[in-house]
Amino acid sequence: MQQDIENLKNEITAAIAASDSLDSLEEIRISSLGKKGSVSGLMKGLGGMSPEERKEMGPILNALKTDIANEIGARKNTLEAAALEARLLEETIDVTLPPRERPLGSIHPISQVMDEIAEIFSGLGFAVAEGPDLETDFYNFTALNIPEEHPARQMHDTFYLKPDENGERKVLRTHTSPVQIRTMINQEPPIRIIAPGRTYRSDSDATHTPMFHQVEGLVIDKDTHLGHLKGTLEAFLKAFFEVDAVTLRLRPSYFPFTEPSMEVDVQCSFEGGTVKIGDGNDWLEVLGSGMVHRKVLEACDLDPNVYQGFAFGCGIDRLAMLKYGMNDLRAFFDSDLRWLRHYGFSALNLPTLAGGLS
Ligand code: PHE
Description:
Blueprint (H helix, E strand, L loop, with lengths): L1 H17 L3 H12 L4 H8 L5 H40 L15 E2 L1 H15 L3 E2 L5 E2 L1 H4 L10 H5 L15 E2 L5 H9 L4 E10 L10 E11 L4 H16 L6 E8 L2 E12 L6 E2 L4 E11 L1 H6 L8 E8 H9 L12 H7 L1 E2 L12
Parallel strand pairs: 2-5
Antiparallel strand pairs: 1-12, 3-4, 5-6, 6-11, 7-8, 8-9, 8-10, 10-11
Helix pairs in contact: 1-4, 2-4, 3-4, 5-11
The site of phenylalanine (PHE) has 10 residues, from β10 and β11.
């Protein structure tokens, strides 16, 4: 009898040690300690024994039951720990991996360039201002010293809306310069703003689309001068094109709202089919600028004998094309996913001066 018990114990112990899953361990538990199990069967036999036999076998069978239960418990702990370990390994997340970019879509080069420009100018102390796309004649033209019948109105290929009941025709703003006026009317100097946004002119070819983007800059203070304009533009273009130095050429020009007015070129080279900004033998026109005309200050109720400043306007689409090597402006607005995947930017990589703009 005792030998049988010993054999049974060895058999069950071996089975426990060999079990490799919680399921097979549970089967062993049922077949040994369960109601109809082998150990339970032996326990039941105690009832039919003589008192002497029971006294001898009782503790032995109880010990068997306890030992088996302990062994199953220990094996269970081991198997559970192993299962957890395996699951943790399988579900490992490598937090050092770069984020997946595609499911979030991509940032359009124009939005990217606008963010880059805002980042650069915020570093120079400029705030971002906004105005509506639908403008009145006053903000888009008159207050900017472009009176009715002024030839500059024809220069702009303006989209006009139907006149309202008062006979007033709104326009799709032809430039971001009306934001200058809105800012000067609503804000006391000193003023330092940029105004990026959509602009519209009836024009369409590889480098012109009826809707395009500009960024306006405006600085008004008591002693702002042309040197500040040049320094600001140099700092901006250097940071934007991510080069150590830029050489600018200020060419005398004409805008009704600035006096003097200049167009600004950056030195560049076109060698090897790509533009390199910074040095070279060529010049590339990048923006229009000048000192704010006194008539414009007057239209905004600022005393031109006290205040002066500079303004500039720059085509964002063109800057994006130059910086990121895209040659057909129309593709910007085709909403072609293949183009966006190729030229778009990660939504998670905001341009910062510290971390790099592009
Ligand atoms: N508004 C001008 C344009 O669209 C650019 C400009 C802005 C020029 C500010 C001078 C000052 O061409």
